[in-house]
Amino acid sequence: MLDEELLNLTQVRAFLAVVDQGGFREAAAALGCAQPTVSQLVRKLEEALGDLLIVRGHAQCLPTKSGSQFLPFARALLRVDRRGRAAVKAGQLVVGASSNIGIYLLPVLMKKLSDACGQPIELKIGSNPEIADQLESGEIDVGLMEWWDERPGFEATPWNRQSLVVIVPRTHPWARRKMVSIEELVGKPLVGGEPGSGTGTLLRKALGASSSQLRTTYQLGSTDAVKAAVKAGLGISLVMESSVREEVRHRSLVALELEDVDLAKELQSIIPANLPSSSPSRAFVSALGELSKGAL
């Protein structure tokens, strides 16, 4: 609604200054204004939100429960404000990619993608959930993900298909094999990777009822950590084939294909819906689809 009151970013900035500096006097000094001005800005923000955000104390000022809940959104608002100003000034496209995509697939394409879009590209790498949240908050223009939750207001376009392989150390009994059945994974010590990437969901779906017998011994935060754990003999894992090409080439890990099952990820490029056809985000998505053919 046009008559709905929007939050004032100057008030939000004053609230963050009080939290970060620990008091109104300190916040005023950091912002370069008078203490009564900071107090008035925070009070107006509390009135707009309908709740107390700061507990006023003589020694220190702390956020209330509501203030703590609002805090990450306040920081995101200022990040988006800075991003918007920088985008208009510099004409830069910000792309967020899940770790595996950003580390193992995008680097070889970045120069050609930038040329195709006609402007510089800033790449931000994070977990799949982090990229989804940054896309929704407007911190990035395009999200490149291994998994998408179909939240409304966005368009998802498949741009690459990545097969999953089983990796084992060179000393493993399977190391001389080229293939393994998916049923053989049941009961074996598995090393899990980045949460929210969709690998576990694909594996459980393929195994059906047998998935309840999967044994994950370690849950690690990145594919690099997974590879190190597998090399150390802590278990086996299921990863994107592109993420272990170097290790397979140097024979520090063995990658096995899965028999009788085509387990793969459809990588998605996500942009806000209803962007004009001439937008840099659409140009990026189109170029990515073309450039990734045969290059990855």
TrEMBL record:
Keywords of this entry: DNA-binding, Transcription, Transcription regulation
Look up the record and report any one GO term of the cellular component aspect: protein-DNA complex
Q: Which PROSITE patterns match?
A: HTH_LYSR
Task: Tell me which Gene3D superfamilies the record gives.
Answer: Periplasmic binding protein-like II (3.40.190.10), Winged helix-like DNA-binding domain superfamily/Winged helix DNA-binding domain (1.10.10.10)
Classification via InterPro entries: LysR_HTH_N, LysR_subst-bd, WH-like_DNA-bd_sf, WH_DNA-bd_sf
GO terms of molecular function: DNA binding; DNA-binding transcription factor activity
Q: Name one Pfam family in it.
A: HTH_1
Q: Where is the HTH lysR-type domain?
A: 7-64
Where does the signal peptide begin and end?
none
Q: What family does this chain come from, according to its entry? A: Belongs to the LysR transcriptional regulatory family.
Q: Which PANTHER family does the entry mention?
A: HTH-TYPE TRANSCRIPTIONAL REGULATOR CYNR, TRANSCRIPTIONAL DUAL REGULATOR HCAR-RELATED
This protein's name? DNA-binding transcriptional regulator, LysR family
Please report the organism this UniProt entry assigns to the protein: Enhydrobacter aerosaccus
- Recall the taxonomic lineage recorded for the source organism: Bacteria, Pseudomonadati, Pseudomonadota, Alphaproteobacteria, Hyphomicrobiales
